[in-house]
Amino acid sequence: MDGEYSFHQEDVDRTFSKLSAHWSHKSSRVQKGGGVRNRLIQLLLSILNTSDSLLDVGCGDGKVATLLRQRSVKNEITMIDGAEGMVSAARDRFSNDPQAEVACAHLEDYVVTEKRKFEVISALQVLHHVANLRSFIESARSGLKENGYMVALTVGPSFHAEAIPFHTPVNDPLGRRSSLEWAESFRSAGFFVETVIDDYFCIQFPGPEDYLEYLRSIGSISKMTRYRSESGCAATHALASLTDSDGPLALTGHHVTIVAQKMGGH
Ligand SMILES: C[S@@+](CC[C@H](N)C(=O)[O-])C[C@H]1O[C@@H](n2cnc3c(N)ncnc32)[C@H](O)[C@@H]1O
């Protein structure tokens, strides 16, 4: 159940540092629709007390903190990311915010060196990218205070199923899992899973070029290409036939959002 992905930490860091230059513009190709980031924000708003400290893991260029500040959340927010490019974009964004701190670190190292505990940890679109899910979730647990919460939004099996059908979460090239499997990953690491929500999403593009450019900007193309060469799966063929015709194309699937509380005695 807790099978590990075949992602390597250095690849993840390198990919996201490279993507960071265009990360905040990646939606410019979208005709209609977008992620369901609001689900994570809604849940965070319902959990955060005014004095709670928040650690946003895999912060990218600081989207979660930006959305919270836009909703007048004044809590202390610490953001960490393993990709230097993302960290410098987040630092630029929050240079005038005395309640925000940004560090270049992997969660697994950060909780060991910092020894700081948070009331809440968030992770927006991070879990399906991490090199070792089990150790990532255990690290999140040790970075939380007793009864603290982790809120995470990630992808379900239907994400990119048009190009790569989902068979099993073990070594899935896109890090996908069903909502029950995500929940089990938290439960088996000492969390009480309070809420799991599946949300349908549809992101529509004017044509194949925009679709492909968007996939490239979120790192999916490089994962699909690598998958094909490693296992002989023809993901790129499926993608090619999908983008063969003119006209609008949609990326559809489910996002999974999990709210999990740290249980004592594990
Ligand atoms: C898809 S991006 C999401 C960025 C941001 N949360 C957003 O939604 O815009 C995933 C991020 O997680 C980071 N990441 C992956 N594994 C990590 C780890 N173990 N510790 C810290 N950051 C990690 C990557 O570097 C990348 O910036």
TrEMBL record:
It comes from the Bacteria. GO terms for biological process: methylation. The keyword Transferase applies. Pfam families: Methyltransf_23. SUPFAM superfamilies: S-adenosyl-L-methionine-dependent methyltransferases. Keywords: Methyltransferase, Transferase. GO terms for molecular function: methyltransferase activity. Coiled coil: none annotated. This is Methyltransferase domain-containing protein.
